[in-house]
Design a protein that fits this description.
Elements (H helix, E strand, L loop, with lengths): L1 E2 L10 H13 L9 H21 L6 E4 L2 H15 L6 E4 L4 H11 L3 E4 L9 H10 L4 E3 L13 H11 L3 E4 L17 E5 L10 E4 L15 H4 L7 H19 L2 H19 L4 E2 L10 E5 L5 H11 L1 E2 L15 H5 L4 H4 L2 E5 L6 H18 L3
Parallel strand pairs: 1-11, 3-4, 3-5, 5-6, 6-7
Antiparallel strand pairs: 2-8, 7-8, 9-10, 10-12
Helix pairs in contact: 1-8, 2-8, 3-4, 5-6, 9-13, 10-13
The structure holds pyridoxal-5'-phosphate.
């Protein structure tokens, strides 16, 4: 079985498992406890905070550990709901993950404005530059890279514009981290990430927020994370996340992701040639090296997914949150795809362990399944 659904969850790597085991066996105190066991746990947590801050380029106290990206994203939007002037709007891109989109709608209602995207799936910079010159939102949120299409968003440009107008900028870096270098992310005021997308364990993520801003906690309870996130920190999985990130950053420093982009590009060329009528979403734009989103020529997406599964390939229909249902993707709808097209999309997302031969096998598998779906 070949796994092409890394954007949903990637397998935990050896280094992350070992780091978890080591921290579990050696550090059993609670970081908030006043004795030596507590101090040792607190010291280990501070060290992990420093390691993440080093990669992002921020102050260690800017890091708040969370249970994952959904919590971190909700926490960020909740914080603005608690602190913004009641007339201020919040602008988010139309292709944000549901945990950003739905929480913004929940807290801000009509004051939530969607930044449109082009047909290729990138934030419409002309719209953004014109609008922000006229009106100042209380917050702008644009993700680093889209989870469904892999299209890289111009987060650095949006950040620079927000800095000019002194508008806080928040980026969901969940699909970026561990696939692209983290460097520079620390300049964004608010950043979120999750370990299970890059070889770390599930159940751990973070919100990077300026330490002077004092984020309003979503949870009531203890005063952990300087009163910003109640609940005992899960030290072993924090260490495990950092071990995985370190491996990924090292692989990127060696340029290993660039070779992998070539394998995917070759796959796309063959797909377009061999499966007549297929199209690659966002084909004209820079995309993550691991992600291909393609509209298949016929047969609903679930039929494709099921047949590919039987043929030995795990692929998805789009975001993990909509898996199991053939429902329109809000991302493709925002890109202007028609109702009939948005249920034709398949997402293939590779990982660091995926080989050139795996991509070739997938291409052959698609040709075979196309024959079946087509009734040959
Ligand atoms: N943001 C993006 C871009 C994602 O792709 C995901 C998960 O797919 C999330 C947020 C939510 O992450 P989690 O389900 O790990 O909380």
């Amino acid at each position: 079985m070949l796994y092409f659904d890394h954007n949903a969850t990637a397998p935990v790597i050896r280094e992350a498992r070992e780091a978890w085991l080591e921290a579990t066996e050696k550090i059993h105190g609670n970081p908030s406890s006043p004795h030596q066991f507590g101090h040792a746990a607190n010291k280990a947590m501070t060290e992990a905070r420093e390691r993440l801050a080093h990669y992002l380029g921020c102050h260690p106290s800017d890091i708040i550990w969370t249970s994952g990206a959904t919590e971190a994203n909700n926490m960020c939007i909740h914080h603005f709901a608690e602190t913004l002037d009641e007339k201020a709007d919040v602008w988010i891109s139309a292709i944000e993950h549901p945990c950003v989109h739905d929480s913004t709608k929940h807290y801000f209602g009509k004051r939530a404005r969607l930044i449109p995207v082009t047909h290729d799936g990138v934030v419409d910079m002309e719209w953004f530059t014109n609008e922000i010159a006229d009106t100042r939102p209380g917050l702008v949120a644009v993700m680093c890279a889209n989870n469904e299409t892999g299209v890289i968003q111009p987060w650095r440009e949006v950040l620079a514009i927000c800095q000019t107008y002194e508008v806080p900028f928040f980026t969901d870096a969940v699909q970026w981290l561990g696939k692209m270098p983290a460097e520079g992310l620390g300049e964004c005021e608010f950043v979120t990430g999750a370990a299970h997308k890059f070889g770390g364990p599930r159940g751990i993520g973070f919100l990077k927020a300026p330490h002077k801003s004092r984020v309003h906690s979503l949870l009531y309870g203890g005063k952990q994370e300087r009163g910003q996130r109640a609940g005992t920190e899960n030290l072993p999985i924090i260490h495990s996340m950092l071990a995985a990130l370190e491996v990924r950053e090292r692989q990127m420093a060696e340029g290993n992701h660039e070779t992998r982009a070539e394998w995917k590009e070759k796959f796309e060329r063959l797909l377009l040639r061999q499966v007549h009528g297929s199209t690659v979403v966002g084909a004209n734009l820079p995309r993550l090296w691991n992600t291909t989103s393609a509209l298949m020529p016929e047969g609903g997406q679930l039929r494709w997914v099921t047949r590919l599964d039987k043929a030995g390939f795990a692929v998805s229909t789009g975001s993990a949150c909509t898996t199991g249902k053939e429902e329109p993707s809000h991302v493709l709808s925002a890109m202007g795809y028609k109702a009939g097209q948005v249920t034709q999309v398949l997402r293939f997302s590779s990982g660091w362990e995926t080989t050139a031969a795996d991509w070739e096998a997938l291409e052959k598998g698609l040709v075979k399944v196309h024959g079946e779906v087509h009734g040959k």
